[in-house]
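The methods section describes the discrete structure representation at length, but only in general terms. Each protein is reduced to its one-letter sequence and a matching series of backbone shape codes. I believe one specimen quoted in the main text would settle the matter. An entry of this sort, consisting of the sequence and the corresponding backbone structure tokens, reads as follows.
***
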Amino acid sequence: MTPEIEKILAGDPLAGARLISLLEDRDPLGIELLKVLYPTTGQAFLIGITGPAGAGKSTLVARLIDHLRARGLRVGVVAVDPSSPFSGGALLGDRIRMQRRAADRGVFIRSMGARGLPGGIGRSAREAALVMDAMGYPVVLIETVGAGQGEIEVSRCVHTTAVVAMPGTGDEVQAMKAGLSEIGDVFIVNKADCPGADEMVQMMERIASHRRRAPDAWRPPVIQTVAVQDRGVDDLVDCLFEHRRYLESTGRLAERQAGNRLHFFRQLVVDMAATRLLQDSPELASIQKELGHGGIDPYTAAEKLLERRLPV
């Protein structure tokens, strides 16, 4: 076991941050390190926090950190932004309220760019969560960008998905969309002191009741919060862990973990295959030149490349 691996397993934040940076840069060393660490993962409770932009997800996550720490739990956070974490962006300003928690050795926060991926939950975000899991954080929160229907991707890499909405800004329509309504294990009406909150709660309750099919199926609770005032957050934490206990008692936790691993595997296959297929070569340059001149359509160009590099 290398010293770097030992540091990560001991929860060293600098070592963890270095590994996540390597993985973001697609450095082969990072992948090899994660391969060694992978057998130690699978212990953390992964929670996705998703919903439309402006619903107050960052403030809510900051409050969740406080409440989880008050219960003696160490917390990892993967906060996905719509832009590069180096060039900044609108959401990074909101994340400042989270950063005072980063001084706590029991909190590890990593903000990363979505890189144009739907919902922002791509390979790097999943890998960052794995690193935090290996570092021994029992709870890892993954907060999405807030990019509409693409937000459903987070449900494929966590155990519990919390969908956040707020009243009075058109979220009523968003809440009724099949994607978000289907993935929610817990529904949250944030800014519940605003006009229209009661109507939003009633709508969420209807969605939750329609979701229940089998007699033992989980019925998503609807929690009202006012994150800026720290109202309702403790109840939310209780509901999140209640869902965890439900998954464990019914055997669905193992099913969900297996499904998440399979989805990540397929994502990696596509990612790695695309990288290899599009490696620079005279062959690829010739096809691209022909396509650029209009001598071939994109479909035929793609088929030609696949036939040459991935013969059946």
